[in-house]
Amino acid sequence: MSQLDAVFARLEAAGEIIEGYSQEQIDRVARSVVDAGVRENRRLSELAVSETGYGRVADKMVKNELSTTILWDSIKDEKTVGIIREDAGRNIWEVAAPVGIVAAVIPCTNPTSTTLYKAIIALKGRNPILFSPHPSAKDCIGETVKVIREALKQVGAPEDTVQILENPTIELTNEMMRHPKTGVILATGGLGLVKAAYSSGKPAYGVGPGNVPVFVERSADVEKAAKDVVAGKSFDNGTVCASEQSVIVDAPIADRMLDALKRNSCYVVNDEEKKKLEKVVVSPKFTANPKIVGKDPAVIAGIAGFSVPEETRVLLVPMDGVGKEHPLSIEKLSPILCFYVEDDWQAACERCIQLLNFGGLGHSLGIHSRNLDVIREFALKKPAFRILVNTPTTHGAVGYTTRLMPSMTLGCGTFGNNITSENITAKHMVNVKRVAFEMNPVNPGSESPLQVGGTGGIAEIIDRKLQGRVIAETPHDVVDFVSERDVLDAVREGRKILISSRTMVTPLAKDTARDHDIFRKVD
To answer: Quick check: is 241 catalytic?
Structure first.
């Protein structure tokens, strides 16, 4: 047995244990990771910055907060065990099943936050998870995994539910993704990695690059727009894939917007400085040079050969085109922001599309406007799946300032060669079985919903029982049918439900009643 096979064997054994957990048990396990991430937030954030040299500790802490408490608040009430939904109208039960072992690839730009986030959503669905860390962040990711494993130990869950490749290589990561026991891949990283994930023969959730444009339309609150753009672009020194890469400004407000950006610590580079930036920011493959990713503006300027004030938050680059002749129009993953001026929203619309086509298809787009008609047109015409309105795109896309699902993995849909356009979350870590009762019988037969050929199907049977049922107004009434709603009503009203051996109780009603001592059985 190879070393990787041994790892998968331990994951599989742990997975068999947690698959038998109740909803309450698995929620306790996932919540333990949330709490551990909160306790260790600062230490893990400091480790991430120290090891990678990317970003800022305070901003890493916000990412960890998003990936723990904010994420948990959004998924804590989701049912991921047993029968999770009953559709009485269509007579269908939906039953949750784990997706299996999750092969999770972690980037160096958001190492600790992505590890916490992926562990929590995998565990919520009762799935074991194996991490392949980026080599330049393997220590801080490894420490995060230790924190998670200790949390599992403290609540009595098998530690081997969460594991890490100690010495990751491209070859080993590819082998992990292709392994026969891999259930699904969560791939966060560069284009090559995502392509490898989709070529592995396994189901995969990948992401696309985020060359995010933001349009500031003439009706916008200019001061707020400027503050939002700078807040998003400078956050963790631009390492979030949803960070603003270019700002396109409506001509009538261009001067006001530029002044507002300057007041918010943007440094406008001149033509000579722009040429120097182009040489150090963009690699020969037209990707961001790792040496400038996540660095402070003053550091980037120094590498390029010029100086800026230490308090500079963003390097602002005037631009008039998009494409290889304009190298800085790529996704830069750093506090460098392109600045365009267009005559009206139609021209701005086309500029945004050009930028999205140059490495950001399907990802995100921002707009600052009070004109709902313009916002609607942008939503209809742009090849982006997150349209963020009057908010920093960095914070809005990941669900920090919006009600989108909190996530560190943002799908780009078919526009970006991804399988989904959603923010990946706990629901993507659950398979759903569907139990469908006959509605339109082919053959006459028994009324029993468990036998094929019922005369009216389960819906008609339930309808007849509902029509003839006794309403449990007092503890002395025996009912013949109980739904989840009946149980919730009884809990709210503080009363009991009397049932007999002939009472039909739906599975969700049984699950809901389990912790409330609602039923009293009468023979």
So the answer is: yes
Q: Is 129 helix (H, G, I), strand (E, B) or coil?
A: strand
Query: Nearest to residue 290, comparing CAs of 281, 299, 298?
Result: 281
Domain span at 356:
212-402
Tokens 């406008």 sit on residue: 268
435: left (phi over 0), alpha (psi -120 to 50) or beta: beta
Residue 365 lies in a domain: yes
**pLDDT tens, position by position, 105-137:** 999 999 999 999 999 999 999 999 999 999 999
- Where do we find the tokens 């001592």? 517
Q: Are residues 154 and 191 in the same domain?
A: yes
Residue 270 clears pLDDT 90, i.e. is over it: yes
DSSP H helical ranges for 264-392: 271-281, 297-304, 345-357, 372-381
Q: Given 108, 140, 241, 338, which residue is catalytic?
A: 241
In which region does residue 126 sit, left (phi positive, over 0), alpha (psi from -120 to 50) or beta (all else)?
Answer: left
> The pTM is what?
0.85
Cα separations in angstroms, 148 against 119, 165, 191: 8, 15, 28
Same domain as 184, residue 226: no
Residues 33 and 37: their CA atoms lie apart, in Å, by 6
Separation CA 312–CA 298 (nearest Å): 7
- The rounded percent of the chain whose pLDDT value lies above 70 is 94
Structure tokens at 348: 């701005």
Query: Which CATH number fits the domain that encloses residue 134?
Result: 3.40.605.10
Residue 470 has pLDDT above 50, yes or no: no
Residue 418 lies in a domain: no
Give the total number of structural domains in the chain.
3
- What stretch of H or E contains 162? strand 162-164
Helices marked H in 293-371 — which ranges? 297-304, 345-357
- What is the DSSP secondary-structure string of 379-416? HHH-SEEEEEESS-HHHHHTTSSSSSPP-S-B--TGGG
Name the band, by pLDDT with cuts 50, 70 and 90, for residue 486.
confident
Q: In terms of Cα–Cα distance, which of 434, 345, 478 is closest to 83?
A: 434
Helices 23-39, 111-124: crossing angle, 10 deg rounding: 170
